[in-house]
Amino acid sequence: MYSIGVDIGTSTTEIIISNIKFSTRLGLSLLPATKIDETEVIYRSPVIFTPLISKTAIDFEQIRERIKAAFKESGIRKDQIETGAVIITGETARKDNARQVNIWLSEYLGDFVVAAAGPKLESVLAGRGAGISEESKKRSKRIINLDIGGGTLNAAVFDCGDCTETFAMDIGGRLIRLNDSRTVTYISDRIVHILENHKLSITPGETADIKVLERFCSYLADCCLQALGLQEMSEDTRLLYITDFTIPKDIDLISISGGVGEYVGVLNEIPDLEQWFRYGDIGPLLGTKLTQALAPWQSRLISPGEKISATVIGAGSHSLSVSGNTIGVDESILPIRNIPIIKCPAEPDQWETVFRSTRPLMELYEEDVLAVSIKGRKSPGYGELKTLAHQIASLYEGLKSPVIVLLKEDFAKALSQMIRIHTPCRKPVICLDQIQIENGDYIDIGSPVGSAVPVIIKTLVYQS
Amino acid sequence: MDQDLVRDISSLDITDRVTIDQPVDYQSCVSLKKTSAARICVGKAGTRLKTETYLRFRADHAVAMDAVWSEVDEKVVDQLGFLNVQSLCKNKDEYITRPDLGRRFSDETIKKISESCRHDADVQIIAGDGLSSPAITSNLPDIYPMLIDGLKEKGYTTGDPIFVKYARVATMDKISEVLNAKVTIILIGERPGLATGESLSAYMAYESSTKKPESQRTVVSNIHKNGMPPVEAGAQIISIVDAMMEAKTSGIDLKL
Hints:
The structure holds two protein chains of two kinds. Chain A is α/β, with parallel strands linked by helices. Chain A contains 14 helices and 20 strands. Chain A has helices at about 60-75, 100-110, 120-130, 130-140, 190-195, 210-225, 235-240, 260, 275, 285-295, 310-315, 355-360, 380-395, 410-420, and strands at about 1-10, 10-25, 30-45, 50, 80-90, 115, 140-150, 155-160, 160-170, 175-180, 185, 255, 300, 320, 335-345, 370-375, 405, 430, 440-445, 455-460. Chain A has a seven-stranded mixed beta sheet with strand order 14-20-19-15-16-17-18. In chain A, strands 1, 2, 3, 4, 5 and 6 form a six-stranded mixed beta sheet that branches. The two termini of chain A are about 35 Å apart. Chain B is α/β, with parallel strands linked by helices. Helix content of chain B is about 40%, strand content about 15%. Chain B contains eight helices and six strands, in the order αααβααβαβαβββα. Chain B has helices at about 25-35, 50-70, 75-80, 90-95, 105-115, 135-155, 170-180, 230-245; strands at about 85, 125-130, 160-165, 185-190, 200-205, 220-225. In chain B, strands 1-3-2-4-5-6 form a six-stranded mixed beta sheet, sandwiched between helices. The N and C termini of chain B lie far apart (about 55 Å). In chain B, about 40% of the residues are buried. At the A-B interface, α14 of A face α1, α6, β6 and α8 of B.
């Protein structure tokens, strides 16, 4: 299955095409189990600056041309693409037409390509694309990946392969931009308070003082240390958080990816002045300052497998997962996309309250199709399952939506059977298990591959 | 009195319990333990196992022994309406030492089955104690109604359920030959290991027969509360029955 990844970031845009291979082997109970076998990146586009029409509008035409070129160069046809993600990241996601571009692109690319943005998902995908999820599993460690791009820093903590925490901040290599004669051409609104509070005089239209830029980048590097919990948090740094404020604990290792990550490394490879400003921004300088700031923790720093391409690889190769193998699906309504996930607050021992606690949450949505995620028990009894089935049937009563239930525990097929047989519900029923929804608000469900269905869990937060 | 008693050592959850003294990397041990049911990261006392590890090993072994030597609670099978029969084995001892007798019935038993059960059904369900009685006692009440529900929904006719005491898997062939069901399913206790004593398997065959090789059977194994949940296995078995009825075959000839 071919998958495309398009990352439209604050500063750069990149496209990859990967080949996702599935295999079916006998699982735990000697039943056939379909899993993702390997994902191989078969094409990488050059990294280009994100084309903009104005300061706030993305140039869709140019991006489409770039994608056309990618198909031509890779030899893969558009109609061969079955999945993937278009991810508009960082500051770009907040630009006026990001939502529109996303919708256009996923329509242009096909039905099952996700249009996704939002800091949580971005952080997870960057971490996976950088290879840190895999690395944390291999080493049995807690590793934090900071993906520092042009406009934002996306952090994800992976504990033995699972993402346990994410956050995002306004830290990036293109918060300040310069032209060839080092005149300041742009300063992001989000850092003005730092410049003022620290009396750093950087003014648009004036030639930048390198010493001041160095001080500013050192300051941003310190912000990173604070966010990593290595230094005491300051009030100014707190203001840089885009997501909820959090400081991760018990981090074993640190990895830095993204464009700035390309310049984080060993101390004796500090680039010269020419290189610092070669992209007309402060990216390389920030990377250098971050390397210096992290020097005392050098032994905890690991180099990720991917740096600038981490997010696009994450989007193209790691956005897809597969459900469990014994699932209940009414194929007539698949594939479906952009289904909001309502998280049922009832604990596993309170299934009799599922209706009462979740129906009011469902009524807040305008969408016709809704999915509910339930906290399950490992092995519910027949009677308990019947209780849950009735609760779910009444949840969906009177709504247009088919029944879509997402579980982490392995009893989806049983639940769908129970709903069909023992409740008055006569709608199509889809129950999926082994679904982790911690970092997602929406789900896409594809048509079955072997004994499972491919799913993409995502967030669709377009910030204004 | 309770406070004078020592806690049952087998009630302790050891799935993430690390008993190495001063491990260099405790967290890695915990995650390693989650990948395996083997007794790893247990530490040692000199060249030997620690007392706790040793006692737990003995306790788990005892659970396995008990699973083999105990009897199925007949109330459980009676309540679900199973017909109670016995293989040629007279007791557990004979059952363990004479597998051949565990596969056969006396002429009277065959006659009883033939006279009291429905013939020519689509699906015949059998339960057998096999090597673990707790596997039946703890899983049958959840898996059996799931099977009945599912078969009914699909429109299949079901035979009268039969419980076989001292049963080997091959008793299903004998019963199939007597009752002539299209698909025969036996739910039977697996040989217990040190991880669980309650694991159940479902062996299924299309036109199950003593003349066919073992490869006629399809199996769903590892059914217990910490493996494949019994309710889920029930729903899954329905799909397999469906596939068998359509392909008119089972075992290695059936592509799932």
